[in-house]
Amino acid sequence: MKLKSIFTAASLSVASFSYAQEAAPLQISGSVDTYYKYDFAKVPNIGTSFANDQNSISLGMIDLALKKTTGKASFVGELSFGPRGQYGSLLNGDGTDGNSFHIQNLYASYAFTDKFTMTAGYMGTFIGYEVIAPTGNFNYSTSYLFTNGPFQNAGIKGAYAFSNKVSLMVGLFNDWNVYKDLNGVSHIGAQLTVSPVEGWTAYLNVLSGKSAGAVGTGTVLDLTTSYQVTEKVKLGLNAADYSVTNDGGGYSGAALYVQNAFTSAFSLGLRGEYFNWKGVAEESDEHVAAVTLSGNVKAGGLTFIPEVRFDNGSSSDMFKKKNLNPSKNASQFALAVVYAF
Amino acid sequence: MKRGLFVALLLCAVAGFAQDAELPFDERGKFIYYEVVAQKDVPAAMLMERATKFFSSSKELKLKTVPQDTLWMARGKVVINKTAFVLSRPSGEVGYHLYLDFKEGKYRFWLTDFSFISYQRDRYGNFVPETTVGIPLENKPGKLNAGEWTAYSKATAREARLFAARFKKGMSEQAINPPTAKAVPSVDTKNQKW
């Protein structure tokens, strides 16, 4: 009798294994992150995205992504829950109540040929070096370029690969970071991708249009590039300029990323950034320089990110001191834990 | 009867374990999958012709040497997936070199120089290579990542065996002269007396 049960269980296991082998796979992946930050002035100072809470063990987000491909068609749906998603990188449903859709990515694609693909929906932006999901960044705190640039672009785009080394994307998009556009599909964007040598990829990006309520047309020009110099050393660069016509302000800046993998489990990365806010109308420009040193300690899907950061601003009241007097400088320590699955 | 069943179960378990084992090392200390296949009475030229046909239909392989040589080399890659029931996600890809050597009535092939490139999710939710430089699969990553690395190594061994089976099928006579397809049975309802 016992033997019969064993055989039944064995047969069932084999059957379910075969089923798993044959079924079209639904990809499910995601991440969770949490952090501790301590600003040495004992007040929250550095205003870039996400790691904002002072002297607190705080939440990032839980991020869940689904992807399914059937033949030439595919979809991606990515949801995030937590301050990094709902408060830090997503607008609420209609922009007025607290009803978040939680959506980071929601789009469908169709590959007409091996070289040409069309995609429509709400997508992570193609502008910039850093991304919203903590698994895509080496440093935990983000750059000013990331914080001031677009996060998502809803729209429709076509991408054509001329060769393995050159491809072009052109699309029509809504205003930045909105689920629906109140002034019509108002932006046009393009991305030229070039991979001149193995390990080096450069993206030349442009996004231009007039957002609802804006004084002028905003155009962002962006260069994002990275080069895997050796097995251990990686370099990255992001440079961007954003201008709004009719003296509507904007920003410009550059960030350099240098990373070295000392072992497969431990890497160090330095980010140096210069960022300039363009003054609106008669206002003068303001700028800030920031240096961030981060470690990445990996154990399976887990990454520990200890980090120190120093920012130096152009005006004496950009940051605060311990006694709340204005300061040109700010510095902070952070320890983040990110798990990817 | 019971003893026979017990032995059968044991054999299944052993076979399962063999499927999950890592590949052996060659004289250079590199993982290798090596096999010599006899194709009695088949000339080397014919074997090369079959191999050419296999390469032309195989997207994941890129031939790097001139097919006139007797020793061929190709580069290939395979994606390693984490799978649980109907869910799956790619963890990374393993690049490898495939070598082929032909003689009259036999050929040999081996897969070696395996290197792993980890995948990460990009801004659009797609999995893409984290870097362009692979880490040799023989490198031990240290205690922190040893479990995952062993899983990659075993998955590579599994994929190498699957590739070998596919390749040998492609090189067999059956692949050149495939059996004619059986007619799908149909029932004629109009010309029947009932």
UniProtKB/TrEMBL annotation, chain A:
Keywords: Signal. Residues 1-20 form the signal peptide. Pfam families: BBP2 (PF07642). This is Putative beta-barrel porin-2, OmpL-like. bbp2. It comes from Pedobacter steynii.
TrEMBL record, chain B:
Keywords: Signal. Residues 33-116 form the DUF4468 domain. It comes from the Bacteria. Pfam families: DUF4468. The keyword Signal applies. Residues 1-20 form the signal peptide. This is DUF4468 domain-containing protein. It comes from Pedobacter steynii. The lineage of its organism: Bacteria, Pseudomonadati, Bacteroidota, Sphingobacteriia, Sphingobacteriales.
